[in-house]
Amino acid sequence: MVKNELMRSNTKILLAILVISLQFNYFANAEENLSWFKGNTHTHSLWSDGNDFPEMIAKYYKDNGYHFLVLSDHNILSRGEKWMTIESVEKRRRTLGVPTMKKYLSTFGEEWVEIRGEENKKQVRLKALNEIRPLFEKEKNFIFIQGEEITNGFNGSPVHTNGINLMELIKPKKGNSLRETMRNNIIAVQEQAARLKKPMFAHINHPNFGWSITAEDIAHVLEEKFFEVYNGHPSINHMGNAQRPGDEKIWDIANTIRLSKLDALPLFGIASDDSHHYHGGDSKPGRGWIMVNSSTLNEDTIVNSINAGNFYATSGVHFKHLHRNQQNRILEFEIKAEDGIKYVTKITGTKKGEENDPRKIGKVLASFEGAKVKYQLSENDWYFRATVHSSKNHPNPSFKGQMEKAWTQPVWTSSN
Predict the structure, then answer these.
(1) For an engineered disulfide with 260, which of 39, 149, 302, 355 has Cβ 3.0 to 4.6 Å away?
(2) Is the pTM of this model over 0.90?
């Protein structure tokens, strides 16, 4: 029995490594003719614990310049038939003002909205993803990518993983430890991708939510390639506290461990909304997103570009040009600067020989003022990444004093 379990575990790990290897090398010969596409990978609707209809949510994102959206409800795909009482819909609206149903009807009309039941027990049908796709995708400038927040936990610690570009629902996978629980759910996404021959990826969500997942945990789950360096929900402890590092420091610790001790690939950072509330409330849309450099606006192409690291995370700062050359270990970019706004770019990394000193992990290696930045990895550095700090206040902050930022993906060296 133990031998069989070990064989199954090894098979899963080999499959995961194969998928990761293929995805990292996908853009080895990428075309130069690429465009930037704006998207959010973490969104909730009435299909789980959000408080608006998926069509209303999609309209917000499309109207605000997004090119793609992942509806990532908890342990469910928006397919099949689902009815909800109108009373329950309205109870989720946390603020006074225009009722949810009134907004819905005025936007999409009585012919679209399906209602059944008696006056005091009326229900409304939630439209499935395949029904709302044609409304938003017909102009070819916006797409949905199907997703799920695989919502799990271990001994009371939340373990939430977003599966992106899924074709089938993934039931949460248990494990005998926190790390095994993380690993099993990520592998489930990778196995589905391999079986259906469709590009997919998984990202670990809000590690500080419930103070559940440490940097060391993320570092040692080698199947994981992505985590949320910024999540717009105000209750996920983005900044950390006196005992636990914030999400950016978690990124640096995990990547230092992977590169210096595990001879493994680093993590890529994602920014997302984790939006739940669209009538006021705490978890609002439009706080963080990713910009993906891709040849076409197609779900598989976008996902392949993300898997290859051809994207950056942002809460408001954008680039005119961004060139990240892992082969030559160079990062060069120009910020799309706004008048009257100051920009400071901090190059953060860990030097070789300093990986065991917590004070020197993820320290500032260089700092630049202005719109143009060029930096090359030193032979003495394990990795570096750039964070652009803007003097512009975030218009929709998730924490006090939040300014707009952007985060590039790391440039690194191996231990060999």
Answers:
(1) 355
(2) yes
CA separation (Å) from 52 to 61, 96, 101, 365? 13, 15, 9, 44
- In DSSP terms, 144 is beta-bridged to 69
Q: What is the DSSP letter of 96?
A: S
Which residues, in sequence order, are CB contacts of 356 under 8 Å at separation 6+? none
pLDDT value at position 32?
63
CB-based contact 290:270 (threshold 8 Å): yes
138 burial class (0-12, 13-18, 19+ CB within 10 angstroms)?
exposed
Task: Please give the single-letter amino acid code of residue 67.
Answer: H
Q: Which residues of 24-46 are buried (b: 16+ CB within 10 A; e: fewer)?
A: eebbeeeeeeeeebbbbbbbbbb
Q: What angle do CA 187, 188, 193 make, to 5 degrees?
A: 95
Bridge partners of 364? 348
- Does residue 200 contact residue 238 with C-beta atoms inside 8 Å? no
- What's the half-sphere exposure (Cβ side, CA atoms, 13 Å) at 143? 14
Place of tokens 């009435």: 46
Per-residue pLDDT reduced to its tens digit, 74-108 = 999 999 999 999 999 999 997 878 999 999 999 99
pLDDT of residue 416: 47
Angstrom distance (rounded) from CA 228 to CA 206? 6
Q: What are phi and psi of 82, to 5 degrees?
A: -140, 125
The pLDDT assigned to 13 comes to 46
What local confidence, expressed as pLDDT, does residue 96 receive? 77
Find all residues with CB under 8 Å of 202, minimum gap 6, and list them: 150, 161, 162, 163, 164, 185, 186, 189, 190, 224, 225, 226
CB within 8 A of 236, min separation 6: which ones?
Answer: 206, 208, 209, 274
Separation between Cα atoms, residue 133 and residue 123, nearest integer Å: 23
The radius of gyration computed from the CA coordinates of the chain, to the nearest angstrom, equals 21
Contacts (Cβ under 8 Å, ≥6 apart) of 371? 320, 334, 335, 337, 343
189-192: long-range contacts (C-beta < 8 A, 24 or more apart)? Answer: 189/150, 189/161, 189/163, 189/164, 190/15, 190/16, 190/19, 190/20, 190/223, 191/12, 191/15, 192/163, 192/166, 192/167, 192/168
- Which residues does the chain have with pLDDT short of 50? 1-31, 416
How crowded is residue 66: how many other Cβ atoms within 10 Å of its Cβ?
Answer: 20
- Which residues, 6 or more positions from 63, have their beta carbon under 8 angstroms from its beta carbon? none
333 three-state secondary structure: strand
Q: Pairing state of beta strands 68-69 and 35-40?
A: parallel
